[in-house]
Structures are given as structure tokens and as C-alpha cells.
Specification:
Pfam families: Acyltransferase. One of its GO terms (molecular function) is 1-acylglycerol-3-phosphate O-acyltransferase activity. InterPro entries: Plipid/glycerol_acylTrfase. The protein is an alpha/beta fold. It has a single domain, classed as Glycerol-3-phosphate (1)-acyltransferase. 35% of the residues lie in helices and 16% in strands. It has 9 helices and 7 strands. Strand 3, helix 5 and strand 4 form a beta-alpha-beta unit. Helix 3 crosses helix 4, helix 6 crosses helix 7 and helix 7 packs across helix 8. The longest helix has 26 residues.
């Protein structure tokens, strides 16, 4: 798989590969920190390709999703993270851990090239295709993951989180101490690689196929774990954000 996409590397050489030292050597410490707070159970890790490029596409419930993915994924993963998280004291740590900042409000070629470089070199990228923390039901899937899959041919592995946010809590809250967290890795989806230039129709078709696959895998994950998702996050004013809209 890496050979089939290595020709793209010349297109992204202007963007440095995200740092990797902390990504590889800090995972055990992050895992220990998360385990102090939560009881994490992993399901389906054998479905994750052991080598070559891979895209982890995860539902998004709360602030703990990124750390859990970074700590417990079967492979070190460069996670696409909103640029606002890189402002302040957390920024240097995220950069050192190889995470990729994304401007969610404007076209961000730098983030795309960083992802392409990581995948072209046979590594893993993590993305939250819903774009924001919410109820995690994958009602909306943005085209970014589909575009990267089209551009590289990398398999997309669904990641389904349960328990990373309690029902009725805000999107930036963490679950209570001792909370059970389940992480389910779904069946990989391979989208046929499309050469540049890729059309909007191609991207939209791939997005729709990926969306349907993610929904099927979410349904399977609910049956496997016997768990449900927490519903919409609480707004700052005490009502659900869904009701507030």
C-alpha cells in the first residue's frame, strides 16, 4: 500500500513531518494517566492493519476522545486537532506529540499536506469526521476523511467511543472517576484511490459511502458493547445544546 501512494510524497515535501518522539515514547505515560481516571476496554484491535497507512475515523463525544485515541490506538496516531487547542500552554505539548492543527473555519492546505505526508510514509492519521464534539451518533460526516482516503488509498478504520462523556454533561467535561470507557475498532473500509485532480463528485460519493459504513459500524458497536451514546452535550446555560438550537 505504501508503494502505491509514495508518488504523492513530492507534493508535500514542503511540509515537515510532524514530530514523532513524544508520539512514540509518551504513549505509555498518557495511557497510565487515562487509566487512573477511567476503566478502558478495547474491542476489535485485530482489525487495525499492522503496517502501512491507515486513517482512524472516530465519533466525537467529548474532550477525552483525543487522549484516549492517542494513548490506546494499536498504532501511534497523528490526530487532526482543532487549531484552538494549540493556543496556550497545551500547544507545545500537542505539537511535540505529533498532532496536526486544523483551521476548522477555512480551507487549510497545511493540515491536508501534513496528513498526506504522514500517510504517504506509511503511518496513521486520526480524524473526527463529525467536526465537533456532540452526541457521537455520526449524523453528519464531513468530507476530509473521504478526501484523504481517495488521495492515498489508505484504509479507514472506524473508531467508536462509549463513555468518554456522561449523559447531560458539557462537551468539555470528563467522565466521573472509575467510569467505564469502551473503544470499538470497526471493519476497515478501502476506498479506491483516485488520481489528482479529484472532483467534488468523487469526494462526495466517497463521503457518502464512508458515512454509511460508519453508521453500520456504530450500530454493530452498540450491539457488541450493549451501550448507548450520551445524547447531546449540555450547554453552558444548563439545557442541551440540541434544545438550545
Amino acid at each position: 500500500m505504501t508503494n502505491t501512494i509514495s508518488s504523492q510524497l513530492h507534493l508535500v515535501r514542503s511540509v515537515p513531518h510532524p514530530p514523532t518522539w513524544l508520539l512514540y515514547h509518551g504513549r505509555s505515560r498518557l495511557r497510565a494517566l487515562v487509566q487512573r481516571r477511567c476503566d478502558v476496554t478495547l474491542h476489535g484491535t485485530v482489525r487495525v492493519p499492522a503496517e502501512g497507512p491507515v486513517l482512524f475515523a472516530a465519533n466525537h463525544l467529548g474532550v477525552l476522545d483525543g487522549p484516549v485515541l492517542a494513548a490506546f490506538a494499536p498504532r501511534p496516531v497523528h490526530i487532526v486537532t482543532k487549531a484552538e487547542m494549540f493556543v496556550g500552554p497545551l500547544g507545545p505539548l500537542l505539537r511535540a506529540a505529533g498532532q496536526i492543527p486544523l483551521d476548522r473555519f477555512h480551507y487549510d492546505p497545511g493540515a491536508i499536506k501534513s496528513c498526506l505526508r504522514v500517510l504517504s510514509e506509511g503511518h496513521a492519521v486520526g480524524i473526527f469526521p463529525e467536526g465537533v464534539r456532540g452526541d457521537g451518533e455520526l449524523r453528519t460526516v464531513r468530507p476530509g476523511a473521504a478526501y484523504l482516503a481517495l488521495a492515498t488509498g489508505a484504509p479507514v478504520v472506524p473508531v467508536l467511543f462509549f463513555g468518554t462523556r456522561a449523559p447531560g454533561r458539557g462537551r468539555s467535561t470528563v467522565p466521573a472517576a472509575g467510569a467505564a470507557v469502551d473503544v470499538v475498532y470497526g471493519e476497515p473500509l478501502v476506498v479506491s484511490r483516485a488520481p489528482w485532480p479529484r472532483t467534488r463528485t468523487q469526494v462526495e460519493n466517497a463521503r457518502a459511502v464512508l458515512h454509511a459504513h460508519l453508521l453500520r459500524q456504530l450500530a454493530d458497536a452498540k450491539r457488541l458493547t450493549g451501550r448507548s451514546l450520551p445524547g447531546p452535550p449540555r450547554s453552558r446555560h444548563g439545557s442541551s445544546e440540541e434544545q438550545a438550537r
